[in-house]
Amino acid sequence: MRISVPTIPPAIISSATSTKTISKTAAVERIAAFLAPGNVATVTGAGVSVDSGIRAYRGSKGIYLNPNYKPIFYHELVDPSDKGFAFRQRYWLRSYLGYAPVRNAQPNTTHYALAALQYTKVIEKLITQNVDGLHHKALSDVWDAATMRARILELHGSLHKVHCSRGHVYERDVFQDWLSAANPQWKAYMDDLEATGRRPRTNPDGDVVLEEGVRYDTFQVPECPTCVIENQHNSTMKPELIFFGESIKPAVKDRSYLEIEECDRLFLVGTTLATYSAFRLLRHALELKKPVLLLNVGPTRADPLPGVEKIEISTREVIRDVVRAVLGSRVKEEPVVDKMLQSGIIKPPPEDV
Ligand SMILES: [Zn+2]
């Protein structure tokens, strides 16, 4: 299966009512009762990272926040022709400029609250559509890399790794340094942005929107050094995230299905389910008659589906109280959990407040 540009049928958006309200107390009670039996699989989307300053593709009305956003497609990025070369220059320049805010982003209160539920095994498996690594960051003090791999599945890959078309993998931080070394003029431009506190508009995949007239064709994208040593050229570098038009690896797809099959209930947070990769997990859960709870403000692709219980309230407003209600005295008994419930930033991008 391939990732296509997310769409929510216009009929859903136009028929959505925003008048459905639930009190905070009732929402906390209901979500806690849903999660308390445990063995929960959770799917998170872009909405979860907004409080960390990472822009969602869609606002609460279900429409694109940046109407001019044109994602780069997989076939464009790996195209071996000159046209593909130009695409890679554009992609890597924008990604280069947009990476620092994503790299420096900190988990927000929702990431930490979910981390408390992951750590205490109420949430057994977490599947995220996000590529920012913030679920990992929220657990980095208590989980090793193997536990992270076993308990968090990055459905659309990660911004924090890069690989060449022959399969050599590098840390994104390392590649960022190579890009700086190869492009001193752009390094200076980026340093200037940081020094003056100007921040280019950034999309959730780390891409930035450049000013009019900026030329991409001066940007140098280094070759894979391992390939060069092996005397192989024309290898292309790509972040380890799934692009629009690219297929999810079968192993990741199979694992995501299995995690739905093995859970007793599915909790969806901050996702419109506009991408089919997440939507089909919901459908799979419904086919297996698993209880499903969706916590999201605004219309979603799941809205017309019977069997989906939707609560429209800001996750930030309720999630810590939900965790306290589910865990009870364990919060105070386990300092790690207590600390998680006091951690996290709330810094949404200005337009999303
Ligand atoms: Zn290589």
Q: Kindly report the average pLDDT value.
A: 88
Tally of extended strands? 9
Quick one: CATH superfamily of the largest domain? TPP-binding domain
Number of helices: 15
Features:
353 residues, Rossmann fold, 2 domains, 6-stranded parallel sheet, 9 strands, 41% helix, globular, binds zinc ion
Give an account of the 3D structure:
41% of the residues lie in helices and 12% in strands. By secondary structure, the protein is an alpha/beta fold. It folds into 2 domains: 23-54 and 107-156 and 250-271 and 288-353, Rossmann fold, CATH 3.40.50.1220; 66-104 and 162-241, no CATH class. The strands form 2 sheets. A 6-stranded parallel beta sheet has the order 3-2-1-7-8-9, sandwiched between helices. Strands 5-4-6 form a 3-stranded antiparallel beta sheet. Helix 12 links the parallel strand 7 (265-269) and strand 8 (292-295). Helix 2 (24-35) crosses helix 13 and helix 11 runs parallel beside helix 12.
Structure summarized in a few sentences:
This protein is α/β, with parallel strands linked by helices and about 350 residues long.
Summarize the topology:
Blueprint: H1 10-15, H2 24-35, E1 40-44, H3 74-77, H4 82-104, H5 109-119, E2 123-128, H6 134-139, H7 145-151, E3 152-154, E4 157-164, E5 169-171, H8 172-182, H9 184-196, H10 225-229, E6 237-241, H11 250-262, E7 265-269, H12 276-287, E8 292-295, E9 308-311, H13 315-327, H14 330-333, H15 335-340
Parallel strand pairs: 1-2, 1-7, 2-3, 7-8, 8-9
Antiparallel strand pairs: 4-5, 4-6
Helix pairs in contact: 2-13, 5-13, 11-12
The chain binds zinc ion.
